[in-house]
Amino acid sequence: MAYGEDGSLMMRYLMLAGVLVTAMVELTPVAQVAAKPFVGISQARIDNQGGMPRMLINEQPVLPIIFWFNIETSTNYLKLHQDPQVKLAAQAGIHIYGLLLHFPRAADGINIDFTAAEKYLDTFIQVDPQAVFFLRAFPSPTAAWKDWKAVSPDEMMVFADGTSVAPHISIASDYFARSFRKETTRIVSHFESSRYANRMLGYHLGGPEFEMFPPGYTEKGPDYSLASQRLFRKWLAEKYPTDEALGKAWGDPKATLAQAEIPRPEKGRFPMRSMGDGSPIKVFYNIPGEQAWVDYSDYYSDLVASRVIDWARTVKQASGGRKLNMFCQGYIFEIGGSFSGHFALDKVLSCPEVDVLMSPVSYAVRQLGEPAGFMSPVDSISARGKLWLSEDDTRTAFIELKDAPAWYRAWFEPPIRPQPYDKLARDLHDTQAMLERNLGMTFAHRAGIWWCDLPGAGAFQHADLWRMLEERKKIYQKIYDRPKPYRPEVAVIVDERSRFSVHSDWDMFSRSLGMLRNQCDLSGAAVGYYLLEDLISGVVPRCKVYLFPNAFQLSDAQITAIRGRLEREGATAIWNYAAGYLGPKGPDPVRMEALTGIKIAVNDGPATSKGVGLLAGGNLGSLNFKPRFVVNDLAAEPLGRYRSDDAVSSARKQVGKMRSIYLGEVGVSAAALGRLFKSAGVHLWTEDGSVIATDGRFLMIHTGQAGLKPIGVPKGVKITPITGKIERREDHTIYVHFEKGDTFWFSLTR
Fold first, then answer.
1. Using an 8 Å Cβ cutoff, are 77 and 456 in contact?
2. CA dist 273 → 218, 335, 336, 511 (Å)
3. CA distances from 179 to 63, 186, 424 (A)
4. So what's the pLDDT on residue 640?
5. DSSP state, residue 80
6. pLDDT digits 0-9 by tens, 511-521
7. What are the structural domains of the chain?
8. 32 pLDDT exceeds 60?
9. Number of C-alpha atoms within 13 angstroms, CB side, residue 113?
10. Per the CB 3.0–4.6 Å rule, which of 127, 446, 566, 699 could disulfide with 746?
11. Above 70 in pLDDT, residue 299?
């Protein structure tokens, strides 16, 4: 399934902002709960055992398998849907509950009223005496605060047209930063000194928006508040030492650091949407004329990362270093726009105080037969010793819409057109199949997961779901008992900084990152997702194939380091579109040859290609991007030709010890990627578009198509079904019958 061409995925994010999640984990089997007194949590941390992040509670490893219930429903529905699910969770060994709590000011506008929040905690404890919590909190200033009237309008968000999201304070505001830090300290300190202290696992913070991108930015663009303007100028002064340096970079001799403005959008840019009407799509900002957009995008991600780091340190200080923190951050594969604020993940991962990062499962591809990928480069997060948590708010067959809050019901009722990812599962089989697929992806990539009853309307109220979870978590327990990092054969290497140079808010983002991730997950190969910095520093493990979807803006040192590693390993590199095109002095196709070893030139014209040679029979790309690149290297073997003029769009070449494959189009299919991977010696478990997840000890396969499917098994590997049935074996292939949507598990041994 493709992304919504009208940008509706981003609109849905904005609808979700502020109402999503937090977490929960396994402590003791329910059979032991009655026999053992409640011990509680004195210390929680994330360790990095054997190169794999693990959650430790009281220095004991705990599976990061989680449940969350939305308490923002009526009291009647809390009892109707909360209690049965909490009981089922406890029976499955789940005793840590995530919930969103509000902490209103008392009547004096100064003190915090914790009464309602503590009442909610008590309702969980009454049902499960072993309950512990990961609290999600809103420490942002509100109109109920005594000093709110004194807040200057300069601190409030405003769009280019003068409208605002009112009353919404800017994340750039100094008042916001001070108040958020102070309020977080008060909330954490209260619980850590209360009777709930040993029931607190951690604190999930965010603000002014929980998912850490500016509200309304996909519809109206950046935050033009005076608070942000001031901070942007301060940031520029740290990058550019003089007015002359700024003027040269921006191509404006009149530009000064004291008067530099946040750039204004051209007419028709917002709301973000596909520009795929057949006319050429402008991919990059024009330099130097639009360098201000590159700088603003860099500034905003740096700002968001700085806030996250500050809040992580605040939680650690207020809890005496005993409890965890969690943030939404690093949605590199999922959200459009160069200025979303999510492209400084490397900075966040470098902070030792940060514990857990999270996002929902990809909304764009979460239906039956789809891959439900990660929004972030999850394997860099794990390799850097942080825990990634996926929120699984699958629209199960058991959600009772009549009991859901109005904001949730509205997604399924006119006049809003339900998006494909909002469809309710048909029945128990489909619900369980999607949940099992998501568990398989989680286990392979060494992440965590929570089951999220987002509407608080019984999403997980079927006992069979919890029995399945209790069985499947045994697979992860074996991994936890003998921790080893994920070792894929294919590494997708994403570059955050290249995002700042991309003008195409929707099309280039969705096809070079989001849709490419989806196709990789359907290729049949074991694929990992990493940051470019981690490839250069050696964090990324050795792989057979390295795929670079957006390595557009590289320094000379980066090109040298990347080429050096690929040459040393004799690896295969797959380069996408404008690899290496942008450098310190602007665009230059000669830099592309320095990176890829293939001679490439700019030759604008109609795009879309047909595959030839190894990729014969398939289409490569579907949109007309500008610039268009052609391969003019006679030593390179053509893999694709533009339909309009037969120019070579894609090719491969042996470059020293490196095998180099260049794809000039964006949007290559899973089948084409599978052929490229296989030609480089990568093992394909399936070749029919099924979803696979494996770490060498288990294999999970999820499919949207029924039939007898061949599954390739590597030499020396013994495969045994955990679920499903092997119909027959032939050499290194087994055949398994799948019904539509089945998810089957296998044990792998050598």
1. yes
2. 9, 12, 9, 13
3. 35, 10, 40
4. 97
5. I
6. 899 999 999 99
7. 16-140+170-216+301-481 (3.20.20.80), 545-679 (3.40.50.880), 691-749 (no CATH)
8. no
9. 11
10. 699
11. yes
